[in-house]
Model the fold of this input.
Amino acid sequence: MAIETDVLIIGGGMAAGWAAIAAARAGARVIIADKGYMGTSGVTATGGPNHWWVAPDPARREEAIERQSSKAQGLGDPEWMARILDLTWRYLPTLAPHYPFGSDGAGGTYYSGVRGSEYMRALRAAAIEAGALVLDHHPALELLRDTDGRIAGARGHALRARQDWEIRSHTTILATGGNAFRSGLIGSRTNTGDGHLMAAEAGVALSGMEFGPSWSISPAWASTRTLPYTGAVYYDAAGRELDIPPSRAAGHAHNRALGHAMLNGPVLADLSHAPEALRPILRRIQPLTPAPFERRGIDLFRDRFPVKLFGEGTIRGTGGLDLADAQCRTSASGLFAIGDAATRELVAGANSGGGAVNSAWALSSGRIAGAAAARESLGRKGALPPAQGLGRIAFAPARYEAAIDASAIHRAVDDEIHGYAHVFTRDEANYAASGARLEAIWRELSDHGRASGAALVALRETAALVAGARWTIAAARGRRESRGLHQRADYPEATGPTRRQLVGGLDTVRILSQQAEFA
Amino acid sequence: MIAQILADRCNNCAQCVIVCPTFVLDDGPQHPVIARIEACQTCYMCELYCEQDAIYVAPDQFAPEPEVDPAPHLGVIRHDHGWDRPGEVGHLDEYRKLGPLLGAGAEIAAKRYQAQRSRA
Done:
């Protein structure tokens, strides 16, 4: 039997938490369906999000927005930036009953940076206290569309109960996070772009998908947070110091140089140059960072150890579902998108939003969509019309059912998006070759993929990973210039046009439009 | 990847089954069982939430390492988070230093790079 609610939130990360609180406080019945456990799933739980944090002084805000607009390289929207600064400043401190905010060292409270495990635990508690129902291990598989053409909820599979579920809702919010393309980035295994796939099946396009990739440095055997690395010295296997520009060098020169060196063999890090003040307190700030070293018997501030760059996909990029209005509605009626599932181009433009802008975006887009979805739902009381599932790929094969080698597909997708070998040769021919390889994988999935239950959850994740990679490559190929995170060998200059670019489609991926100029 | 659930410490509360974001564990008669290790992302969340300190996650995220003595590491992650002392305040008082320490490291690297350039 189907459950009914006013607002269904798919995903359980920080944007979902803030949306649930806003919607429930506005009087709506709210269900959060998370594929993992709301509190540990997604990249926030193992991270430490800083929030874009500027006091409500008009001159300081204006200056911050100008600085951010300059980083966004012509693609940001100053009005959106002002909104997220305002909402973040007002709402982050409201988590105090559930989050143990620390001292600012000057007699006050430090709000802007929070530790992910405590932050997500607090958001879960606050959402439940506000009245939201949290369903853990309830991955969504497809959206529902009713006979009026509205998105009317979702279907999925409850992993622990081993049962399919259906939730009918007046409004649906996608808070499924970004797509890490199964790079192994810490906390990102559940970030497979499921919401992007489901929304695309409802006809929603994506924007900003061309702005990436970016990477995070870690020991070769485990992705960790990167606090101890900013002062690191790097060596090749023979012990020769590598010429690596500093971590904050322009044009992502640091990661590019590291990636280039790794193409020639193992790279070792020496963290003995890290700030002295860090050593005694690292484990109190980032308790998960020392663990992979201690458990290997390595002194991370003394011994050299091999490192790897873990791709950050659209999490550190800016791409995601295109938004149709200032309330985070998508082009599909009844459907909203927030956090990393949505485009962050409006606040980050062509560059990574970094943790701070993306976190402020997640909080603010959650608040905005939660309140708007509650208003819309409460105005739509009455019987729900019949609805149909929109899921196609992996539900039924276009030709005949055959086994799919998902691990091989995941490796291929991660390599097409994050492989160092591509970074220095990104040009028309390289994109065409990547696109053709991904096209063949999509065709295989489409022709032969079929599963049910937990296996369908996994196969839909695989399909979402491939779909995300196809949009990424198509969008990068479509933007014939270099700008921000998007760097091409054949068009190395930022020549414009300074416009947002939409990409979409499933069986056929295409650039849909070049949107109106900003700034 | 998660390596061991220690039967002599586990009280089978199933909290780890519930909190695992990638649904690696199943309920078991005496203690939860590691049912889908290939889905483990080595995020340590099961260790953090285990009030019995009965779980050991091995450090390699790419390959299982079941044969390790977990004793020195049990409970360390939960203790470092302060989750074993819920009444105590101030666990996050150093947290404000994260940003400045990132900046200090970047400054060290930038100065070193500059010095190497000017020598060359």
Q: What stands out?
A: The radius of gyration of chain A is 22 Å. Chain A has a mean pLDDT of 95. Chain A touches chain B through 67 residues (CB under 8 Å).
